[in-house]
């Protein structure tokens, strides 16, 4: 599975400002059906000077973030060149 993690900062008026994205490959499993998995250790480094809220000289103020994820399979088993055209 391919997993996309999108990070945005939420400003004072509720507007969102994109500030990071990561794409990960999740390993396959051998379970007989779908299952939940836990993804750990996705980290972002966010400079204070790129904050959505302008408050000069303050490194101790609260910041609010929204995380969205999207996933899709990367192997679907179809082989174009091996298909029989007849």
Quick recap:
With 86 residues, the chain is mostly beta strands. The protein is built from no helices and three strands.
Can you describe what's shown?
There is one protein chain. The chain is mostly beta strands and about 90 residues long. About 0% of the residues lie in helices and about 35% in strands. It has no helices and three strands. It has strands at about 1-10, 15-25, 65-70. A three-stranded antiparallel sheet has the order 2-1-3, with no helix packed on it. The protein is elongated, with a radius of gyration of 20 Å. About 0% of the residues are buried. The model has no long low-confidence stretch (mean pLDDT about 85).
Radius of gyration: 20 Å
Number of strands: 3
**Share in helix:** under 10%
For the report, how would you describe the main beta sheet?
3 strands, antiparallel
Name the features:
86 residues, mainly beta, three-stranded antiparallel sheet, 0% helix, elongated
Secondary structure topology:
Elements: E1 2-10, E2 16-25, E3 64-72
Antiparallel strand pairs: 1-2, 1-3
């Amino acid at each position: 599975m391919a997993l996309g993690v999108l990070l945005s900062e939420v400003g004072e008026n509720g507007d969102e400002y994109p500030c990071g994205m990561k794409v990960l490959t999740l390993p396959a499993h051998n379970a007989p059906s779908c299952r939940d998995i836990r993804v750990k250790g996705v980290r972002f480094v966010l400079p204070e000077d790129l904050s959505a809220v302008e408050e000069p000289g303050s490194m101790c103020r609260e910041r609010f973030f929204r995380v969205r994820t999207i996933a899709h399979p990367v192997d679907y088993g179809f082989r174009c060149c091996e298909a029989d055209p007849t």
